[in-house]
Amino acid sequence: MGMKHWLAGVAVAAFAAVGAYVYLDTGRAAAPESTFVLLDGSSQTTADLRGKVTLVNFWATSCTTCVAEMPEIIATHQKFNSRGFDTIAVAMSYDPPSYVVNFAETRKLPFKVAIDNTGAVAKAWGDVRLTPTTYIVNKRGEIVKSYVGAPDFPALHQLIEKLLAES
């Protein structure tokens, strides 16, 4: 019985450590090399993000939180876009492309929308499975913050202001 409790304790500690890293963002990691295939058929790579502060949002049309937060993501993009801020919304592989196109057109999304039809982008970005998952990437191409669920948008805006001010 003691061994089971010890193993359970180790498992809990491991999950807590991973959770603390994800939610406290104690380290800065380079954004993973990936290629985003955009709705217009063009593509953009992680390297193309350098020099801008970028919000990378993994979402799905079937995700109620994703749909609910989209007006805030649009507002965030519009507030900071002219100052070197970019947004890429990455639709999950299980999301039918026709739904994604319809959503982007009817909501007039003002930013880049990518379809991750193979799941390779979600896998590269930490095997994203929960939506929404959002990453903030600084001008040097480093992930400085990640969110699972809707971000606290006032705090997110403060972070973006800080990152835009960095040289």
Automatic annotation (TrEMBL):
InterPro entries: Redoxin, Thioredoxin-like_sf, Thioredoxin_domain, Thioredoxin_ResA/DsbE_sf. It comes from the Bacteria. Residues 25-165 form the Thioredoxin domain. PROSITE patterns: THIOREDOXIN_2 (PS51352). One of its GO terms (molecular function) is oxidoreductase activity. This is Redoxin. The lineage of its organism: Bacteria, Pseudomonadati, Pseudomonadota, Betaproteobacteria, Burkholderiales.
